[in-house]
Every structure is written in C-alpha cells, then in structure tokens.
Amino acid sequence: MTLHELGQKHETDKWDHSHTFMGESYLHIYERYLEPLRGMRLNFLELGVRNGNSLRMWKEYFPHARIFGVDFNAQCKQHEEDRIEILIASQDDESQLGSLADSAGGFDIILDDASHINHLTHASFQILFPRLKSHGFYIMEDLGMSWVDYSEHADDPAYMEGVLKTHQERGISIHNDREDLEKLFRKLLFDMDMNRGDVHYLHFWSKIAVMKKGA
Fold first, then answer.
1. In angstroms, rounded to a whole number, what is the distance separating the alpha carbons of residues 210 and 201?
2. Can you give the pTM of this predicted structure?
3. What's the CATH number where 176 sits?
4. What is residue 115's DSSP assignment?
5. Number of domains the chain contains
6. 8 located within any domain
7. What domain range includes position 51?
C-alpha cells in the first residue's frame, strides 16, 4: 500500500482535503522522500501523538522501524504497542528529548506535528536536529498554522480546547510570531549559501518544510 492509502486506512488527517494542495496530500509529498527508506531498520520520531493513528500508519509503512512519539498529554501513553514507544514530555524539554534520542541512538526521521506554536517548533528543532543522523530527514508540518497568533483567540473554545488550553494553564506562551520561524529558515538558507552548516537541502511545500541533513 502507498503511504496515502495507509493514511486512509489508519484514519489520519494527513491525507484529507485540508492537508492537500494541487492534488497532493502531505502523504504524497512525504513518500517522495521516504519511500527509498521503507525497508530499512531506522528510528522514526513524531512530535504530537493525539489518537496514535499516525504512529500506527508509520509502523506499517516502515515494517522494520522503531517508532517513537512525544506528547505532553499523559493519556497518549495508551497508544504504545510493539515497536511504538511514547514519551510524555513537552516538545521543548531538552533533558527528556535528549535522553530519548540518546537511548534510541539518534533518529533517522523526525516529524514535528505537535503544538504548531512557533517558538516551541523552533525549540524542538534546536534540540533534535543535532540528534538527527547523517542523511536523515527533519519535517515541519502544518506551517499554515504558524501564521495564527493563538493568544488573540484565548476566549474562543475552538482555538483553546485541548493543546492550547493546556499550554496556557502550564504558563507556556501561546503567542505565535511567524518571525520565530522566518529567522530560523533565513539562517539555514544563509548557511547553505555560505557552504556551511549541515543542512543538505531545505524544501518548502504547502504547509510543509522538509530538510535533509548532510553527511
């Protein structure tokens, strides 16, 4: 089965209309990069677990991989199963994320589908990209949400239920400033232009950034 078909089978939202542009879903795009790795023994990390459907999709797509998930919601631990390990932690917890990466021996693929709060997305990248293996992929998902300042909608239940409410209760800023990510992307592009750094390429798609780490 293709990744798109597996997404439908496992009822993820990565294939639906809101995650599709010009006839290609997120999963069509990911398969362009990841299909050659399908039979390999690798470590796959997804930030953001929610209902566990995405992790189960990745488990089937990569039959020899160890699948890791990170979520701050303790209820997500129930989605652990053979070859799926879930860490309960915030996506900016350097100590816990670092320990997970060390115990796994690093990651081959990292997909950030967590809070979509820009400073947290940036923090995860700073923590985890150094722990990505050579020739590995780092993917940021749902960049369309990075333009939304959640703090302006604090009284709107549609924005505040679940993740955002919990972040606010824990004192984590939900102010979203796209400039947090723009600075990161400009820095990566500048380093590439200057023939330095360890990003081989940075590709942008609708709501997605895909980075490949060099040797």
1. 8
2. 0.92
3. 3.40.50.150
4. -
5. 1
6. no
7. 28-213
Q: Kindly give the confidence (pLDDT) of every residue in the chain, 215 residues in length, as a single tens digit, with 9 standing for 90 and above.
A: 999 999 999 999 999 999 999 999 999 999 999 999 999 999 999 999 999 999 999 999 999 999 999 998 899 999 999 999 999 999 999 999 999 999 999 999 999 999 888 889 999 999 999 999 999 999 999 998 877 776 666 666 655 565 666 666 667 677 777 888 999 999 999 999 999 999 999 999 999 999 999 98
Dihedral (C-alpha) 70, 74, 75, 80: value to the nearest 10 degrees?
50
Residue 122 belongs to some domain of the structure: yes
* Dist CA 126 CA 172 (whole Å): 18
Is 10 tagged catalytic?
no
- Examine residue 36 and state whether it is found in any structural domain, yes or no: yes
Query: 19, 28, 79, 116: which one is catalytic?
Result: 116
Asked if the structure places residue 52 within a domain, the reply is yes
